[in-house]
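Tokens help. Our protein:
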Amino acid sequence: MPSSSIDADLIRQSATVLAAAIAAGEVSSREVVQAHLDRIGEVDQAVHAFLHVCGAEALATADAVDTKRAGGEHLGPLAGVPLALKDVLTMRGVPTTCGSRILEGWRPPYDATVVERLRAADVVILGKTNMDEFAMGSSTEHSAYGPTRNPWDLDRIPGGSGGGSAAAVAAFEAPLAIGTDTGGSIRQPAAVTGTVGVKPTYGGVSRYGLVALASSLDQAGPCARTVLDAAYLHAAVAGHDPRDSTSINAAVPDVVGAAQRADVRGMRVGLVRQLDGDGYAPGVRQRFAEAVEILTHLGAEVVEVDCPHFEYALGAYYLILPSEASSNLARFDGMRYGLRAGDDREASVESVMSATREAGFGPEVKRRIMLGTYALSSGYYDAYYGQAQKVRTLIRRDFDAAFDKADVLISPTAPTTAFRLGEKLDDPLAMYLNDIATIPVNLAGNAAMSLPIGLSPDDGLPVGLQVMAPAMADDRLYLAGAALEGALFDRWGHLLIEEAPAL
């Protein structure tokens, strides 16, 4: 445990509370950052949330924030607050591995736009977090550097691919984190670790400097312990970026104001019939049903909606994603940066590329590259990739029809609570099914959030609820999420994360 009572108190505060305390001069940014670095030193050997800790750099940034504050400079609402960064976003001079051996030793010469905006907001980056290799996985067991463990039960997974970011927040190693979500990689880890995770509208947060998995699906977003904390982080990193051709040139929705209003009276909440079936664990279904009752009590109008093509989402996704991954990962060839294997004076370029990719990529990455290459190959493109894109269009139409009837849609985030490490490693389909509720949002480009709604009576582990909103209506996520969070706080008398077992 932390070495002093002030440190123990600091690491359990929300980012919003910490920011206010720093702004009021009650505590310095250096003290807050040091408390979290101490926490990382004490528990991360067990959790393995971090791949690289930037201790000296973080303290230097904290000192700079404290100096600005003392000089009377106007600072942003998260100034001086520490954050953990998923290791798929570039940060100048800091190792960026994407959880893969093939990028071992690479130090990018530039910052991702998300990192630039965090720096501009005076947020202190503590380090880079573990992840499934190139964001391919639902358990963070596919990292080349070993699995991350769930702080609620160290024998269980923290979700994936962004399990490191979610675990860092759940273990009180950081009050905030950045993740990326291609098919649920922010939301599913949030669900199984009892934290809040948001997948913004596609194009709402810049992808410049985000190492691509599937370019039409990838989206960076916030991880936090409260909805309001996530809103402040969302506002800090969102907005148009001309360096990203898919970036939306429009005003960022007022997510902070929505989280502060936290009022669902008159809001139409749609229950997606296809996302509450027999594949969901009894404890997950029970907590979800209770949350629906709470929303009704808060004044929301709950309606049932039908999205008939959602049942094809998993199949379409696992053609589109591998196809884009096959193309994006072709650049990792041992020629320009990262690992190079089989390099001797007699070796051909082709043999070096082959040896490098064989040595550098793990089995899940190889599996998806082969699937994608096959789907894109001559004679199969129309039958597989082309058909998957047609299904994607049908899923978008399902969402459009559903949002004609409801302001937001809800479902359980994941069909089960955190499963045991190793339990699904040998069954890829069972692993892929963890994202069955989250994938449709990525295919459509909409916004979604997962927030904790209690512990499953089956095993005492966290359950998450997913809120989905139309593109560029991200504020609706925070309106509904904060209202539900507030009601659950009144019921429990504390945030769910405060019940997490001590490490």
User: Anything to note?
Assistant: The chain has one domain: 5-308+397-499. The longest strand covers residues 447-455. Residues 5-308+397-499 form a domain with the Amidase signature (AS) enzymes fold (CATH 3.90.1300.10).
